[in-house]
Amino acid sequence: MAKKAHIETTINGEQVEYLCEPRQSLLEVLRDVLEMTGTKEGCNDGNCGACTVVMDGRIVNSCLVLGAEAEGANLETIEGVATPDSLHPLQQSFLQNAALQCGICTPGFILASKALLEMEPDPGEERVRHWLAGNLCRCTGYDKIVKAVLEAADVLEVKG
Amino acid sequence: MQDFEYIAPRTLSEAVALMSEKGESARPLAGGTDILVQLRGGRRSVERIVDVKHVPELNEMSFSRESGLVLGAAVPCYRLYQDQDIAQAYPGIMDAASMIGGIQIQGRASVGGNLCNAAPSADAIPPLIVHNATCVIAGQQGTREIAVEEFCTAPGRNVLQGGELLVSMRIPAPKSGSGGRYLRFIPRNEMDIAVAGVGSWVQLSPDNRSIVSARVALASVAPTPLFVEESGARLAGREVSKEAIEDAAQAAMEAARPISDMRGTIQQRRHLVGVLTRRTLEGAIARATN
């Protein structure tokens, strides 16, 4: 067995250290080593986006990142989106629009949408649909998700 | 996933040494969007993964209008399409970089990795071919360069010998009056693998009326990405016209050697090559005249 790697990284603003096998994905490290189970495993081969996290400002599929690659990185997961007092406007909007049913894809959609709105506060419907093409949802048919993202964009702009 | 060791060297010489030590049982890791899927699926086995993202030469992305573009093999797609100057200079490559996978994949996957993975359907390779890219390869014996159209040798295979690394791609400076375009056919809007893809590039005369030279390359219709010299030959020196474009499209259809599989039939693919060659040439000409 290859030697475990000692990794120091930042997750949701906090310094975190862990040991991982070289073959462990970042997704496995988050869920099994750090017990941060908000990030979901879907297809485990980079098609569905359920495991989306933000790594150094870009959304990535954490199933296609090795845990060892996170050395020195700045990571953001679904656990860092809400504050203890309130949900993020995107989360609120997903609830109000019933943009989730089983919920497995939701953390990935929230992180992907949040990354979009932080870069482009006022994306149109087509842009939202294109941006979210790497996130699959087998329940909602996407319309409610797209509507929720567009509504959250309006709320965020007003708060802006 | 199978067990392997992971090393992230900081210099090119260190990376080459680590690769050479293990020969065929070492693989480089850039964006990981192909290799990690292959390892997990048991389609490849390795003893050592060499993460090349911290090697400066593989991370280089430098462009000037005089000397052209040096694109490090590990530079992810998004860095390319975020750079307006590069996007404008090499529009065909940009078309591909912004359609490989979804946004999550583009945040990690590199054009160099797409080339090394050597899929017949790789979207980045036809545009690299038509934009005249050269591969810079490093090994224990030193550095060598080859034209990108000679890089892929079979599905999933390339010219790299055990221990060698693709360092970067060099793309000549864009000439004024030139333009490129890449299009693929997929049955959806995004996140799919090309049924057929075509990259075209043209150099127009100063008055924009005739074609000085042109290059056409195809994806998904042969065991490797295919450079169709004949299409360029049928366009060189001709006036810009429907007939000239049609001749080039015919040459591309004749050169294609597609198979029938779950994505499409031989007939459909050959037809698509004709349609896409016409459209990409028209697109390249439109961009060249802008």
Offer a concise description of the structure.
The complex is a heterodimer of chains A (160) and B (290). With 160 residues, chain A is of the alpha+beta class.
Given this structure, which CATH class of the largest domain in chain A is correct? Alpha Beta
What share of residues of chain B is helical?
A: 25-40%
Instruction: Note the beta-strand portion of chain B.
Output: 15-25%
Query: What percent of residues of chain A adopt helix (DSSP H or I)?
Result: 25-40%
Q: How many beta strands in the DSSP annotation of chain B?
A: 14
Any idea how many domains of chain B?
Answer: 3
As residue ranges, the low-confidence spans of chain A are: none
Mean pLDDT of chain B: 97
Strand order of the largest sheet of chain A: 2-1-5-3-4
| End-to-end separation of chain B | 50 Å
Task: Describe the largest sheet of chain A.
Answer: 5 strands, mixed
Classify the secondary structure makeup of chain A into a structural class: alpha+beta
Helix segment tally of chain B: 12
* CATH structural fold name of the largest domain in chain A: Ubiquitin-like (UB roll)
* The CATH architecture of the largest domain in chain A: Roll
What would you call the structural class of chain B? alpha+beta
Spatial extent as radius of gyration of chain B: 19 Å
Under the CATH scheme, the architecture of the largest domain in chain B is: 2-Layer Sandwich
Rg of chain A computed from alpha carbons, rounded to a whole number of angstroms? 16 Å
